Amino acid sequence: MKKKPDKVKKIQNSRARFDYALTDDYLCGIVLNGRETKALRLGHGQLKGAFVNIKDGELWLNNMTITGRVGLPIDEEEKTQARKLLAKKREITALMSAKQQGLSIVPTEVLTRSRFIKVRIAIGRGKKNYDKRATLKKRDDDRNVHRELKGY
């Protein structure tokens, strides 16, 4: 008998693609305790304002917020604490070289569909305000063209 697929709660960083021009992405594991794992599987996490640092050759995810609920109390200081990311040495060296070139490492989403919780991180260059305006204009133009083709 096959298992029913679990309802996947994907936590995304909606501002990442708007604020950064993203290029390469990597999939990393994350070190969590039991309450944090349960909360993320229920979708009680947020990546808004999160970023990745490299300290002593290790990746650290900062400002990711994990909120508890009635049955899962999470302390205030544990909600936004730095969490270690698990990646291969080759990936860490590639990320270190990108960081030295002035690029940013941005978490884009948290995946909870398998046994392990993974974080997708990407290398990105910060967009200027005129780049953001161009993105909004292109999105509006595409929406208008699609609307005209549909006949509305």
Explain this structure to me?
With 152 residues, the protein is an alpha+beta fold. The protein has one domain: Small Protein B, Chain: A (Beta Barrel). The protein is 33% helix and 32% strand. It contains five helices and nine strands, in the order E-H-E-H-E-E-E-E-H-E-H-E-E-H. A seven-stranded antiparallel beta sheet has the order 1-8-9-2-7-5-4. The protein has a two-stranded antiparallel ribbon with strand order 3-6. Strand 4 and strand 5 (58-62) form a beta hairpin. It is globular and about 50 Å long. The model has no long low-confidence stretch (mean pLDDT 86).
Structure characteristics:
Small Protein B, Chain: A, single chain, 9 strands, 32% strand, alpha+beta, 152 residues, two-stranded antiparallel sheet
